[in-house]
Amino acid sequence: MGLIGSVLNAPGAVAALGDAAKGVAEVFVPSATKRMELSAQAQEAALAQFGDEFVNASASGFDRLVNGLNRLPRPLLAFGTIGLFVYAMIDPADFALRMVGLNAVPEPLWWLLGAVVAFYFGARETHYFRNRPVNLPAVAGAAVPVAEANPALDDWRATQTEG
């Protein structure tokens, strides 16, 4: 732009022409910077709204009961599976009869059970993954990175201060 501006002796016109070209280009290709800014604003608003839901979190008796019930399925599944092995050892004939009954369960019902269990444990794992502690470096003792020398950048800065 520097050469064109000096040839035409109209640096303001060249800047206006560049701005016009940028405006026309944004009609066909949206600005990536603007898209990222809007995405960040939307995410900040969503996080603020999500945070507002937990400002007055109460620990009533009902909340404690539901939290306790939410902790039951994993131990019940684990101990229930071990209990099946014990049951098979104690009364093999009755255990075999019960397994024949399980064999009569239709396949779509097994798929439904698998989906329920998978979503339960998947949601639980996702909850703990999202709420894991973030280890940030200490600010007081953190070293400030020193920028390396860049001769091209120094030359450019020198031309900017001269002109």
From TrEMBL:
User: Which species is this record about?
Assistant: Cypionkella sinensis
Q: What is this protein called?
A: Holin family protein
Source organism's superkingdom?
Bacteria
UniProt KW Membrane keyword: yes
- Per UniProt, which keywords does this protein have? Membrane, Transmembrane, Transmembrane helix
What residue intervals traverse the membrane?
72-90, 102-123
Query: Which InterPro entries does UniProt cross-reference here?
Result: GTA_holin_3TM
